[in-house]
Amino acid sequence: MQVLKTVCLLVLMMTHTTTSSLVTEGNLVVQSSNNFSNNVYMHLIKSGGNVLYCPISAHVLLSLVYLGAKGKTAHEMKIALQIKYSDKVLKNSYKKILNGIHHSTLNIVIRIYSKIGVKVKPDFISTSQNYFASYFQEVDFTKRKETAQLINTFVQDQTKDTIKDFVKADSLHNALNMILVNAAHFKSDWIFSFSKAVEGDFYVSKTQKVIVEMMNTGKTCDFKSSSTLNSKLVRIHFKNLSYSMIIVLPNKIDGLCEVELKLQNQINEIFHGYSTRVVNISIPKFKIETEINLLSVLKYLGMKLLFSTEANLSGLLYDPTLVDRVLQKTYIDVNEYGVDVAASTLISVEFYSGIFEQETFVADHPFLFFITFENLIIFQGRFVKPN
Questions:
Q1: How far is Cα 46 from Cα 379, in angstroms, rounded to an integer?
Q2: pLDDT per position as a tens digit, 44-80
Q3: Are 144 and 169 in contact (CB under 8 A)?
Q4: Closest C-alpha among 236, 189, 180 to residue 57
Q5: In this structure, which topology does domain 27-187+288-332 adopt according to CATH?
Q6: Alpha helix (H) ranges present in 199-339?
Q7: How far is Cα 95 from Cα 99, in angstroms, rounded to an integer?
Q8: pLDDT digit string (tens) for 347-357?
Q9: Is 376:97 a contact under the CB 8 Å cutoff?
Q10: For labelling alongside 302, which of 168, 208, 211, 340 has CA 20 to 30 A away?
Q11: What does the alpha-carbon distance between residue 51 and residue 68 come to, in Å, rounded to a whole number?
């Protein structure tokens, strides 16, 4: 049975324009993506409310475009994407990461739709296919309905029918040279099950509370109390142990903004310093769905030329081109169902409960959450109130 399902779709559209005049390679890219993730997140939370987005989806697709950028455009992208190493390291690292992902749990797919007759640089095609496992397809953007249906069918298939009709036919036009689509789909069971959700209080603020469905369990998992963040953290693994959900719960009901500011330059704090505890966990059952145009965020981070007539993407296409839109749609469903723990495992848990210290983790006020593959942030968000 499904316990957590997240889906992300990123679409990057390129338009023709006429110009007027850590230790290992993989860890370096992981750190870049995580830092980029937090920088984007700090901009997204300005609008308030729940937040959900998929940083790896954005970073991998923009990194691919960066490899086709030149001059000042490439320089701006390199800084914004936190790339502090050679292009060779970037390509080899993403090849390792994308090959290392367990596709039965997390599936990340890139498809590139180019306009019929537009010449794509051979080196870019080679890089896309050999390092990013991309698939190219020529389309006629003047046939709006057919092309939109083609793209939407691909997205719907890759996201297991979760995202439908994302690309609108009226958003397509003949000036488009290329559309890059990245679909990411994550689905997994918890390593242990939660009890059936029951109603409980959730404090939206110190003075306001609402009723939500709370999921409860008491099992051994990774726990830490962070004085740096003034928070409690739990890391709950999924059936595939390479993946986990990290929840950062401020000690104060109104402490979310304070924690977010502290994490801005200390994102690695969420990965280290845990110890095994028996933790009585209570978290809300929730769903979040978002649709974001990342263009303003990326401009804020310094990618300005990419979206102007001065964009230099000469390593990608022969024709002058700029990026028109960067859209992301993301969905998450967190519920109590998971893998039933076998009797032998339950016995082991009961045995260990006498050895490990016990902790209580009640997420009854706003918190942050991360879905990670090892130390790579796949999804990042905040839950501040029920929809």
A1: 18
A2: 999 889 998 889 889 999 999 999 999 999 999 999 9
A3: yes
A4: 180
A5: Antithrombin; Chain I, domain 2 (3.30.497)
A6: 256-263, 295-300
A7: 6
A8: 112 223 344 46
A9: yes
A10: 168
A11: 31
